């Protein structure tokens, strides 16, 4: 029997070589980008990827499986999976899990084709491997990478008025987020509220939002009353990629289609700003938001499964 053993890179180039040595587990837009060497080189140069976050199993002939992580804030997300769900994957995933055991907020995610789900036979061996190593499924999400065309969002007329934040300390933002997180349908929001309570969850959500994106891309939404009913955040990046980062509606204002209106407004602005590809995510279980994406004209291109330590 051929012996299998774990290897880790000491340099960024060695790490990239390991990541490209085994075929990716699933065909999806995100996984396709993980085959792009220049993109990986930029990620390692920025520190968002590190050699210490790449684990590979091999025998004397070839790399059998790879697992790699991406830094998001203080956490690490295992997002790169190569090879096949065999004993080699168990070796790499065990090492990755042990290394991240003391890293708060760490997650794992699988990027599957848009039509796949947790019931897909091709996904089951990977789900079983994650379960064996102490990970549990948190949520299934829709990922969107929609070509931007002028018609997107144009047919939706909204009475909402958007107002950019006055700054990162805008006093309206944290009270609004308490309303957004109340009875939220987002699995990550629900988990956060369960862990720390509504007030602390709102503070942490705002801090994470401000850390991830410039405050200038965040807009409060008003329906004629002096208090905001929701917020939307979008950003256009060089290269033509436009992101809708967050859409949130206060619990007291739900049921009026404001989520759809906010998505349509952000979509129109991204198209106007010249974005070529529109990108966003939402939970598959968040039926109103998935319906909003469909109504505005977005098309799901990927299914993402998010896992947290059990």
Short overview:
With 310 residues, this protein is of the alpha+beta class. The chain is 35% helix and 29% strand.
Q: How are helices and strands ordered from N to C?
A: EHHHEEEHEHEEHHHEEEHEHE
Q: How many angstroms does the end-to-end distance come to? A: 33 Å
Unreliable runs: none
Task: Tell me the CATH superfamily of the largest domain.
Answer: Gcn5-related N-acetyltransferase (GNAT)
- Can you give the helix content as a percent range? 25-40%
Q: How would you characterize the overall build of this protein?
A:
The structure is a single chain. The longest helix is centred in the middle third of the chain and has 15 residues, at 198-212. This protein has a twelve-stranded mixed β-sheet with strand order 1-2-3-4-5-12-6-11-10-9-8-7, with helices on both faces. Helices cover 35% and strands 29% of the residues. It is built from ten helices and twelve strands. It has helices spanning 12-21, 29-33, 37-46, 87-100, 124-132, 173-181, 187-196, 198-212, 258-272, 287-296, and strands at residues 5-8, 54-58, 63-72, 75-83, 107-113, 135-147, 161-164, 218-222, 230-237, 241-249, 277-283, 300-309. With 310 residues, it is an alpha+beta fold. The mean pLDDT is 92. The chain has two domains: 5-133, Aminopeptidase; 161-303, Gcn5-related N-acetyltransferase (GNAT) (Aminopeptidase), CATH 3.40.630.
How do the helices and strands line up, and which of them pair or pack?
Blueprint: E1 5-8, H1 12-21, H2 29-33, H3 37-46, E2 54-58, E3 63-72, E4 75-83, H4 87-100, E5 107-113, H5 124-132, E6 135-147, E7 161-164, H6 173-181, H7 187-196, H8 198-212, E8 218-222, E9 230-237, E10 241-249, H9 258-272, E11 277-283, H10 287-296, E12 300-309
Helix pairs in contact: 1-3, 6-8, 7-8, 9-10
């Amino acid at each position: 029997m051929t012996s299998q053993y774990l290897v880790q890179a000491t340099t960024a180039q060695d790490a990239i070589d390991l990541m490209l040595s085994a075929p990716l587990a699933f065909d999806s837009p995100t996984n396709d980008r993980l085959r792009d060497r220049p993109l990986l080189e930029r990620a390692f140069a920025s520190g968002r990827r590190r050699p210490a976050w790449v684990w590979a199993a091999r025998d004397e002939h070839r790399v059998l499986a790879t697992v790699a992580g991406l830094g998001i804030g203080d956490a690490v997300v295992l997002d790169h999976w190569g090879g096949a769900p065999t004993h080699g994957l168990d070796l790499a995933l065990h090492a990755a899990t042990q290394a991240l055991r003391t890293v708060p907020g760490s997650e794992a995610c699988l990027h599957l084709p848009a039509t796949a789900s947790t019931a897909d036979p091709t996904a089951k061996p990977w789900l079983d491997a994650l379960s064996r190593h102490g990970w549990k499924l948190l949520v299934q999400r829709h990922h969107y990478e929609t070509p931007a065309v002028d018609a997107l969002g144009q047919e939706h007329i909204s009475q909402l008025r958007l107002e950019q934040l006055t700054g990162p300390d805008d006093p309206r933002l944290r009270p609004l987020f308490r309303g957004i997180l109340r009875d939220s349908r987002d699995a990550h929001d629900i988990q956060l509220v369960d862990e720390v309570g509504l007030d602390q969850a709102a503070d942490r959500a705002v801090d994470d939002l401000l850390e991830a994106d410039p405050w200038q891309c965040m807009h409060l939404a008003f329906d004629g009353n002096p208090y905001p009913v929701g917020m939307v955040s979008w950003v256009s990046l060089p290269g033509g990629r436009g992101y809708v980062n967050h859409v949130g509606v206060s619990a007291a204002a739900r049921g009026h289609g404001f989520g759809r209106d906010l998505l349509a407004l952000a979509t129109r602005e991204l198209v106007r700003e010249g974005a070529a590809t529109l990108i966003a995510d939402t939970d598959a279980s968040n039926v109103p938001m998935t319906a909003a994406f469909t109504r505005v004209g977005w098309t799901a291109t990927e299914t993402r499964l998010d896992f947290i330590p059990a």
